Amino acid sequence: MKCETIKRNYREVIKFIPEGIRLVAISKFHPNEHIMAAYDEGQRIFGESHEQELSRKVKELPKDIEWHFIGHLQTNKVKYIAPYISMIEAVDSLKLLKEIEKQGAKNNREIKVLLELHIAEEETKYGLTLDACRQLLKEGEWREMKHVRICGFMMMASNVDDAEQIRSEFMTAAKFFDEIKHDYFAEDDNFCERSWGMSHDYQLACQCRSTMVRVGTRIFGERVY
Ligand SMILES: *Cc1c(COP(=O)(O)O)cnc(C)c1O
Description:
Layout: H1 3-15, E1 22-26, H2 32-40, E2 45-48, H3 51-60, E3 66-69, H4 78-81, E4 87-91, H5 94-106, E5 111-117, H6 130-139, E6 148-155, H7 163-184, E7 193-195, H8 202-207, E8 212-215, H9 217-220
Parallel strand pairs: 1-2, 1-8, 2-3, 3-4, 4-5, 5-6, 6-7
Helix pairs in contact: 1-2
This protein binds pyridoxal-5'-phosphate.
């Protein structure tokens, strides 16, 4: 794809994102040159899902980019991204949370994370069911973690055309956010993020209390794997 096309796509995408909602430009599998096209339009938050690809891009691209890790993260990879990552968006186990705590401590920093919810009807290994998430928070080990900051939730809606179903999944996540905010984070202003909405449903997500949309294809074109 031409850089000019990416710039045009980018301007088109942000037109539909209301003020107060942030865009995470999902640049996985796309080259530096294309990332720089969005950067030149003012974009500063990018999301990647593979550790090696991310670590390479971090070295090569401007230092004022905020990187979000959006994919499934293996515990043995946490140490590589811990020094620089702005946010790890898809935490779905206590084991991973503990490893982030450990690596955060080693790097003497607090790492922001989102817990990934599994609400969509699709079968996937990833994400916490609402009950599993309640359980994890109730057990309370996270309270002792001084180098992990739980900032909210991320989720993916079902990959369907039915807007009502997608809306209902987003609203389930939003309602769950309110429950958990009330029960555990009422005094914690950091717990404020709701990361939902991708290329095909980000406009809907913006109507369903998303604070952060993750858009890739609509900006950079189809990924070549
Ligand atoms: C790839 C990816 C996206 C972006 O998807 P598009 O359909 O290209 O916008 C968003 N979130 C996650 C978790 C992803 O893996």
